[in-house]
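Methods — Computational structure assignment.
A single polypeptide chain was analysed. Its primary sequence is given first, followed by the predicted tertiary structure written as structure tokens.
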Amino acid sequence: MERIHPDVDRIVLSEEDIKGIVSRMGADITRDYEGKNPLLIAVLRGAVVFMGDVMRAIDCELGIDFMAVSSYGDGAKSSGVVRIVKDLDTKIEGRDVLIIEDILDSGLTLSYLMKNLSSRKPASLEVAAFLVKDVEGQRPAVKPRYVGAHVPDEFIVGYGLDFAERYRNLPYIGILKPEVYGK
């Protein structure tokens, strides 16, 4: 049994669950990109942990790059107004591109990013989302090609996901106690 951080209410995905998800997604991506050389793009910082694991689970040639974006909102929700803080170092024209996403909520920021990247004329542009947050009455603005798992509409931390730059190093996905983030 995993030791739960005192600020975490409960674990929704254990370390073993995550390993299984990463393995399954890596096999699916390997199958779909066989004989190609996709460019995996992680949006800093949350997706770094997932990117590191999933790229090792992919058994085909690939490249990696990173972007950093700043989205404006009330802190807990994104408004979809996005500013690119760090752009790609790699040209993507004619390249198969796979955005590696940690968690998909409204999808507004990702939708903006996909429009931006599409304008650069990649051969293909898809999304691999580790988590999709199930928000009642709302569908994300982007439909990922690959989905690791669905999680409840609560504050998720661990495995790269944070609150105020804390909890990224937890080896599991947990629900943060509401009193910690002031709900």
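Note: The first strand starts at residue 8 and ends at 13.
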